[in-house]
Specification:
This protein has 258 residues and is of the alpha/beta class. The protein contains nine helices and seven strands; from the N terminus they run βαβααβαβαβαβαβαα. A seven-stranded parallel sheet has the order 3-2-4-1-5-6-7, with helices on both faces. Helix 7 links the parallel strand 6 and strand 7.
Amino acid sequence: MENKNQTKFIAFSSQKGGVGKSTFTILTASILHYYLGYNVVVFDADFPQHSLIKMKERDLEIVMKNEVLKRQAYKQFSTIGKKAYPIIQHKAEGVLEAASKYIDESEIKPDIVFFDLPGTVNTPGILNALAGMHYIFTPITADRFIMESSLVFSQLIQEVIMKRGDSSLKSIQLFWNQVDGRERTILYEVYNDLIFELGLRCMKSIIKSSARFRKESELTTKNVFRSAILPPDPRLMKISGMEEFIKEFIAITELERK
């Protein structure tokens, strides 16, 4: 039986770009690290763009220039007594070994390591990296092309990678992102039935669609939603659905309560 104190290896992964895998990596990491007391590390293995590395650099620059955000950051880090979580650049090939080495050498053992992985299974090392995850979360939207790609990807993970003798993967979870309240409920019911028929799992919580949820650090902003330095604004977190998502995420991954 797995020790629940073991560091969890988790990836938001998809074969379709633009569905939010990097965004959810940052959102979830920031909520868990800054709000809920978990120790988080992120490996940005999405070569060559490494968007999370660039996001953190941009966030740091903006926070230092925005007096409101600078005060928020100072209060936050003084209260929680720890630094921003590290984002480490790497390629998919060898990223598991790099993460294990980091954990072994860390004075404070991380509770979770998030991996932002490339969006194609043709990338060298990607299949081994996916097999080394404990949990994979795949965002989906009610778009036929995205659904087809996501379902094929999820079936590949479940039917091939999870059945490998050396796989650490416990489950792959799909979840609805960018849900527009004006869309027909029956459309989601049809898709949910299809997911169930394919033997796949879909989370109950959904993430709503709004331009406000894409708000990043800016020179004039007073609150943020997506940031590597600050957690999302509590009100936006609640109305977006991230609050319920995090509760379900913690239950699925069997993270110990802090």
